[in-house]
Each structure stands twice: as C-alpha cells, then as structure tokens.
Design goal:
It comes from Psychromonas marina. This is MSHA biogenesis protein MshK. Keywords: Signal. By secondary structure, the protein is of the alpha+beta class. The protein has a domain of 58 residues: SH3 type barrels, CATH 2.30.30.830. Helix content is 21%, strand content 34%. It has two helices and seven strands; from the N terminus they run αβββββββα. The strands form two sheets. Strands 4-5-6-7 form a four-stranded antiparallel β-sheet, with no helix packed on it. The protein has a three-stranded antiparallel β-sheet with strand order 1-2-3, with no helix packed on it. The protein is rod-shaped, with a radius of gyration of 29 Å. The protein starts with a helix and ends with a helix. The model has no long low-confidence stretch (mean pLDDT 80).
C-alpha cells in the first residue's frame, strides 16, 4: 500500500514539474521577456533642405542627401519638388515639407 502511495505522489509531482514554464537559468533576476506584439514602422524621416545639384533636385533628409528613387529607412523617395518631398511606405504616401503647417500660413 505504501508503494502505491509513493508511486502516486511521484507521478503527480512529475506531471506538475512538467507543466511549469521553462525559465532561463542564466537570465538576470526580475527579467521579463518582451511580448511579441505589433511590428512598428520606422519613424517618418525629417526633411531638412531641398537643393538643386547639377540641374537635379536633391533632398537632405536625416542629414543625408537623397534623390528620386532612393530609399530612406524603408521609405522610397518618389518625388522632389521645390517645397515638398513625397515618400511611399507600403503603398501609403507621406508628404515632407520644410515648414510645419503653422509656419507656412502664419501672418
């Protein structure tokens, strides 16, 4: 009878131990693993200047020079005008301007 009780305890403890979540023994104390959530796109680049170089418009975006067709952090430069730059990211168009809405129309 005692053997049956010990066998029952052994089996139940073994099943309980297998149901615990596996923990990395090398992780720091109070370490919480990040949950896999939404994937976010990169921030919309910042336009600093638009220049004409050798007759072709170029945009200074995030402190680098770009021309039509080049890529900036996953955004493609599709058009450079004298006052704006158009970028496309996953079929959505973003318009970059040199000044904010308030600065452009202030009196």
């Amino acid at each position: 009878m005692v053997k049956v009780i010990f066998l029952g305890l052994f089996v139940s403890l073994n099943l309980f131990a297998q149901s615990e979540a596996l923990v990395d023994p090398t992780a720091p104390l109070n370490f919480q693993q990040k949950k896999q959530g939404k994937v976010y796109r990169a921030a919309v680049p910042k336009l600093q200047s638009i220049v004409m170089k050798a007759g072709k418009p170029k945009a200074i975006i995030n402190n680098k020079e770009y021309q039509k067709g080049q890529w900036v952090n996953g955004y493609q430069v599709t058009h450079i005008d004298t006052d704006k730059v158009l970028l496309v990211y996953q079929k959505k168009t973003y318009t970059l301007t040199l000044y904010s809405q308030n600065e452009r129309f202030s009196h």
